[in-house]
Amino acid sequence: MRLHWATLCALSVCLPFGATGAGQTQSAVRAPAETRIAPTKIAGTVVSATTGAPLAQTRVSIADTKNRANMRWMVTNESGRFEFGQVPAGKYSLEGAKRGYLTAAYEQHEQFSTAIVTGTEFDTTNLTLRLIPMASIEGKVVDEAGDPVRQGNVTLYRENHGSGITRVTPINRELTDDLGTFEFAPLPPGKYYVAVSAKPWYAVHPHTNLGEGGSSAPQSADRSLDVAYPTTYSGGATEADGAMPIEVTGGDHTEVEMHISPVPSLNIIFRVPEDEGQHGFASPRLAKRVFDGAEYNLPSETRCTSGVCEMTGVPAGTYLVRMPHPGSQRVSMQTTEIDLRNDGQELDTTRGEPEGTLQLTIQMPQQEGVPKGMRITLLDKQNRNRTFQELDASGQAIIENLPAGKYSIVIYSPGKPYSVVKTSSEAGETSGHDVNLPAGGTLAVTAMLAAGSANIEGFVKRGGKAASGVMVVLIPKESSTREELFRRDQSDSDGSFSLRSVIAGEYTLVAIEDAWGFDWSKPGPLARYAQHGQALKIPEGAQTAIQLPEPIEVQPR
């Protein structure tokens, strides 16, 4: 069962804690009398996921998964017990919230959880709802003298597996205070990294007064003060690849001390064409590769004289340099990777390819209108997001300043899922969602969409018995390139699952034990599970629920 954000909001923010006494209940909407058939009860204990201790004064709610307005809640007693009586037969979400703990649903993993199925044939009276204590990462940034670094930029990264591929992405940023301290809270368990960037308060970056012909005369300044702090990661590394992970478990209050040390800074030279210099120009931007992305806006200063510009305060290293492309008739940019190691080094503006523009028009299926809020993202060959842009009312978007290369077009819509099944351009029609953008050119593409319209319903069993809390994955035949075709669910207490809005195509259905945090969308790790999965073919235009005749057997991780 997939959790709804509105439900989480109702539990953690929108509804007040302690509205009733311990053991008391309140019903937002009572079930009609005629539906109260074979009433049962949902009961159990809320405990700490780390210690197993019962949690009193916890707000617990149940909601009918078919009608979430039909919701009841109560507060646990001193033994952490809760009990909802007279519950009609059906399927219910079970969620708990307590101050100092992460709001969670029953057997929750990522955005999925297990729904409780009630009825006379099910025992729902001894459930255990586990809540994870909130965690934090607190720290201090100090310089080479051991003094606190004020106004340092601290970035928190987290390893996540939500898309089926392990990625490390930024989740929060903060400035250090006057004591050099920072704090990130509340945090769920996971693997984190911390990075710090700052400017030495005493640094002086003299310019060399470049004039005609590039001759220079150094200004009078102590070059020993011409230093910079390289971005520093947890563990002391100055490159993301060497960063030390910070493992956080529930309730941890992890303390880290970040030591940053100055290195000599470089003066980097670049030249501006005379016509650009008269009407303004686009200065090069430096970026560092950081985990699965790139970080721009590194601390530096730029000054220009007679068409020659100087960038100061740059630590030595390998950078992605985004700069104007020479000879272009309009402001065209290019990106290239350059090793900057020498003071006075000049940027080679001839190395990179000019960036291109994608003009995209979508063609909706069945002459549907373009949904409000529909967005496009482009994935590069490393499966990283390169842009995220909303389409206009006519289904068009112009994405500029893209490096040449192969991209996958992925569509997001708040109402229902869509997939690009074919593209059309001057080069002809191509099946799939990939396009090849030329360097410095404009590519006009029409993307034809298919909508998810079929629902797959079935059961998961382990040794002939219903298996709950198991990850069910629908693997598309094109598993390595069609991330948007995957569907997942978590089996409910009776072993049932439902995969919604499946797009027509060929798939393999598998159920994997304890697969949360697993790179399930990579073809290699999935191959051995797919061998024992169930093959499915969803026809075009399938509109009804597809009931699987046989249960899916759980495979061990």
Structural description of this entry:
The protein has 557 residues and is mainly β. The protein folds into four domains: 5-131, Immunoglobulins (Immunoglobulin-like, Sandwich); 136-340, Sandwich (Immunoglobulin-like); 356-451, Immunoglobulin-like (Sandwich), CATH 2.60.40.10; 454-555, Carboxypeptidase-like, regulatory domain (Immunoglobulin-like). Helices cover 4% and strands 46% of the residues. The protein contains three helices and 43 strands. The strands form nine sheets. Strands 35, 36, 37, 38, 39, 40, 41, 42 and 43 form a nine-stranded mixed beta sheet that branches. Strands 1, 3, 4, 6, 7 and 8 form a six-stranded antiparallel beta sheet that branches. Strands 11, 12, 14, 16 and 17 form a five-stranded antiparallel beta sheet that branches. A hairpin with a 2-residue loop joins strand 22 (301-305) and strand 23 (308-315). The radius of gyration is 28 Å and the shape is flat. Mean pLDDT is 85; it is low at 4-37 and 212-218.
